[in-house]
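User: Hey, quick favor. My workstation is busy. Could you predict this chain's structure for me?
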Amino acid sequence: MVFASGRKALEAQAEAFRFCAPKFFKIGDCLKASNVRNANRTAYDAAAQI
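Assistant: No problem, here it is.
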């Protein structure tokens, strides 16, 4: 499920999860408040790096 609401990016809250996994990528609204196209693209780019 992808949810992109185009609101303010919550970078500090996202950073709290940085140490939960060996690799950590911020995608979608965690990176920059935008639209669903940006969320899908950043998710695809992150998945391609795994």
